[in-house]
Design a protein that fits this description.
Number of domains: 2
Distance between the termini: 30 Å
Number of helices: 9
Shape: globular
Structural class: alpha/beta
Order of helices and strands: EHEHEHEHEHEEHEEEHEHEH
CATH superfamily of the largest domain: Rhodanese-like domain
Largest sheet: 5 strands, parallel
Length: 279
């Protein structure tokens, strides 16, 4: 099964699937309340809202964690159960367009062992562009027992950039990777040895490229099948979009470095590289 779902297929599921939970993950890093405001204005019928900072991340510990540490598995499981997710529930997550925030909950659910989860390809922008139904009505909670299962994902707590079998992928935009500017974190640059594959390059006309084109893109970038892939970004969020794209392209499950750049730079012994790797 694809990790993506089209607007047409989601509309069909809304009409035919009983055990379906839709999650609105719209968010703006520069305006943390905007996503909830947008959700209250209109959203996909039946969708619940989960906030990146409050629901999909754990508490930030100064000088110890990055900007969006992983949440407690138990606490997140409780929150997901409150909105009706249980074993076998089909889950669809969406954000405004690029899929990165939706991929965060996609990855987190799989981290909790829940396999039946997809990201809406094209996000809410595509849903609206296709004149699909929207509403301001808030769904009534229907709590269900969410049962933790072994993770379907891989996590790397401290990537070993000296291991020749590991390919470290930085998914931020090229200017941040090169250290030309850093709008969020206090230090610019990237982890030594990383290559730059911007996550927005996985999209075309607002949707994910098809599997064939993604495979060609990653092959051209030099990603071999024998390599162990580790993805990171600024805080472990947009990197999940790259993991989804790599799975769509047929690669084995890449690992996520959850702390990413914002955690890496907290260690004074870590170096920040500038323009030492190819894109």
């Amino acid at each position: 099964m694809s990790h993506l779902i089209s607007c047409q297929d989601l509309k069909h599921s809304l009409d035919t699937v009983n055990d379906l939970v839709v999650i609105d993950c719209r968010f703006d890093l520069t305006a943390p309340t905007l996503g909830l405001t947008q959700y209250l204005e209109d959203h996909i019928p039946g969708a619940h809202y989960l906030h990146l900072n409050d629901d999909l991340s754990g508490p930030v510990i100064p000088n110890q964690t990055g900007r969006h540490p992983l949440p407690s598995r138990d606490l997140l499981s409780h929150k997901l159960g409150r909105i009706g997710i249980q074993s076998g529930t089909q889950v669809v997550a969406y954000d405004q367009n690029h899929g990165a925030f939706a991929a965060r909950i996609w990855w987190l659910l799989r981290w909790l062992g829940h396999e039946s989860v997809q990201v809406l390809n094209g996000g809410y922008d595509d849903w609206r562009a296709q004149d699909q139904p929207t509403t301001q009505d808030l769904p009534a909670p229907q709590p269900a027992p969410f049962v933790l299962q072994p993770p379907l994902t891989q996590v790397v707590r401290q990537p070993d950039w000296n291991d020749p079998n590991i390919r470290l992928i930085d998914v931020r935009d090229p200017a941040r990777f090169r250290g030309d500017h850093e709008p969020i974190d206090p230090i610019a640059g990237h982890i030594p040895g990383a290559m730059n594959l911007p996550f927005l390059d996985n999209l075309e006309n607002g949707r994910f490229k098809n599997a064939t084109d993604l495979t060609k893109q990653f092959t051209s970038a030099g990603l071999g099948d024998a390599l162990s892939l580790v993805c990171y970004c600024g805080s472990g969020v947009t990197a999940t979009q790259m993991i989804l794209a790599l799975l769509e392209a047929g690669y084995p499950e890449p690992a996520l470095y959850p702390g990413s750049w914002s955690e890496w730079i907290l260690d004074p012994g870590h170096l920040a590289a500038l323009s030492d790797a190819t894109r």
